[in-house]
Bifunctional aspartate kinase/homoserine dehydrogenase I (Neolewinella aurantiaca), 821 residues
Amino acid sequence: MKVLKFGGSSVARPERILGIVDILKDYYASGDHFTVVFSAFGGVTDSLIEMSRLAAAGDDRYGEAFQAFADRHQEAITALLPEGALRKETSTKMRKSHDVLKNLLYGIFLVREASPRTMDYVLSFGERSSSYIISQVLQQAGIPAEYLDARKIIRTDKTFGSAKVNFDKSYEQIRDYYAEHSKVQVVTGFVASAKGGLTTTLGRGGSDYTASLIAAGLKADAIEIWTDVSGVLTADPRRVKKAFTIPRLTYAEAMEMSHFGAKVIYPPTLMPALHSRIPLYIKNTFDPSFPGTKVSEESSSEDEAAVRGISSINNVALLTLSGSGLFGVPGISARLFGALAQKSVNIILITQGSSEHAISFAVQPSDSDLAKKAVEEAFAYEIDRGVVNAVKMERDLSVVAIIGENMRYQPGVSGRLFQALGKNGINAVAIAQGSSELNVSVVIPKEDENKALNALHEAFFLSDYKTLHLFIVGVGLIGSTLLEQIRNQNDYLRSKLGMEVKVVGMANSRKMIFDEEGLELDTNWKDQLMTKGDDADLAVFIGRMRDLNLSNSIFVDNTANDKIAGYYAGILDESISISTPNKVANSSSYLQYQRLKSIAAKRGVQFHYETNVGAGLPIISTLQDLLDSGDQIRKIEGVLSGSLSFIFNNFDGTRPFHEIVREAKEKGFTEPDPRIDLSGKDVGRKILILARETGISMETEHIELKGFLPEGAMDAPSVDDFFSVLEENTDYFTKLYASAAEEGKVLRMIATLEGEQASVGVQAVGPDNPFHGLSGSDNMVVFTTDRYNERPLVVRGPGAGAEVTAAGVFAEIIKIGKFLS
Ligand SMILES: NC(=O)c1ccc[n+]([C@@H]2O[C@H](COP(=O)([O-])OP(=O)(O)OC[C@H]3O[C@@H](n4cnc5c(N)ncnc54)[C@H](O)[C@@H]3O)[C@@H](O)[C@H]2O)c1
Ligand SMILES: N[C@@H](CCO)C(=O)O
């Protein structure tokens, strides 16, 4: 025998009921013995409460509410049963039954009172109506079904609203009734009766309870709870998109999950069946072939995930009793919790450190003032004497919990929990873990709840992929190339690295656009940005990124803008990592550079800027590796400008200088403003950053910059004017080239750092110079160190260009993603 239960959502509309009829026909055809318990049609219990409330308040609109209730059931009958005798019989029976309800409501209206006893009777009409109608529909479908009013079989006391079951009597009645009735019994959930035939109800989860009692009474083989979700999921799917069905849970795990708000089942009411060790299946009415979740006493094997689910309580208040007067005094917690019990305050979580200096406990926010008062009254004497502090109350908190019986066998689970929270900048306000190790609960700020659930889900359910949420400012040359690379690489990232990159926010200097689910990166993205985007506003962009508060958020600055750099400190402080090719932040004051590094370290987030020097070449990371491994830098020499390298490698006097500069710009080698390259400022910034990486507190003005441009070039008010000046000075540049060529030399813009001295300037170098043979947009950096002394360490390759630079930024995004694992 199986006991099936269908909840309100499964019978909310006639077409859903027809789906259930199909499911039951399959059971019947397969020869299974079963009985079915139904809840009221979805929303009906609430409507019965509402019409009673109106009637008790003397509001005659209760009549309309009643009529809607009656009509809904008649409409269901018409929709579910063809015209004929059975429909007529069903309709008449319902009308008679509903007349009783109408009279009852009128009585409530007259006496202006709906006592719990009356309410139980009123509410019983929901289950009685749904079950009766469905029993008739089943008959129509060829199943020999029979309506069973559970008041005949389940006996309770008279605690109306949440009656206590008389198990022995109920089991006896269940057994007797089923022994005499061989048809498929269609049972009203939730309702029962007390001595004298008084109608009672079973409280929260009542229909589950009915199924459980019948299963225990009949010693059934299984209980099936049919609902509108595919079993118990690893987390609330409304909050965690990647949540998936847990195939197996122990009773204890299911209990923990449900206490934390996974309202699929209500295990306390299932206790009778659980005591009889009857396995329980949670199945989806809308996807009947899906296996769902099996809850039984079989614990998961050790090779299955230790953490079975992640759950949360959305809103709690945390109260803390602290003070020296608590230490070593027996009976403190008895007094504390006794005082709370007296006021019927339910405690959600308790924690006390072994210093015994403070006891914290979480309660429902609605209980918090009462709890604070109760505890302060109980400890008034100690508080007066100053040995115990006034109760501290923190609001707007949530509890997130990881759940699983096998956690007890595995060290490192809580390590992973706290790492996932920490890397996402989520503060653990309080922590609780019982010695059963079935549940580790962490109290966190409420605003971080979704982020925490997603971060924990990614940390514990590795079968899934991790999602990085990108916020990209600057979608010009580098930014758009980066977007293309992300689009092309996403499948590979998913399959090989278990990572998915979603661009959630995007902005250029004019527009910005967001999509929490990830913006489409097809060829249309620019149109979308320009036509659907809002006017760009950096502060708003960053505020939105902060408010979305998504796990694994990364900010990418692909601009050359100086204002954006001013936001980095705040972004890092929000525990959001940054990757940027923009050199402005690191080449502003040394103090600012230091501050950004400190904030990143303090917050445990990543600040990456490899592309600040040498585009995609591993220059900064090589330098950091040398330093980290204890090497001493003696000298750094480099051609650090891709555009100047390209210009000097291609300028052979046959074409005017300005044409080659223009070509460098068109090829995407120059800065958005090429004057920054040609002036040597860009190279200056790069050697400054390298100097700072070695630990020197250098400022821009400490760099000796020997420019090579003719006088007045840098006074040009615009880029176009600048090109005009270059053109006017064609001869000047040709001579510059010729004088080097006469000596068999070439021109190179070389940056040098030796000791604490840095210089940048154009030099004419001969074939014996390592920089002589460069080509294309090559950069080359020569590190002379204690270890690389006789033969220096050289990094060489293209030092500018969209593909290599964007790839450098992309690589950093992946690096941050791996760090966040
Ligand atoms: N081109 C290269 O080879 C190379 C190599 C290494 C580093 N970089 C650096 O990459 C960065 C971008 O260079 P690019 O060539 O892509 O420049 P670009 O001019 O093509 O793009 C800059 C983008 O930034 C946006 N932007 C500017 N100010 C903004 C603001 N206030 N708010 C929002 N968006 C803003 C622009 O609208 C544009 O989308 C620069 O910092 C540059 O130094 C470039
Ligand atoms: N404009 C820069 C880009 C790389 O930082 C250059 O020419 O090197």
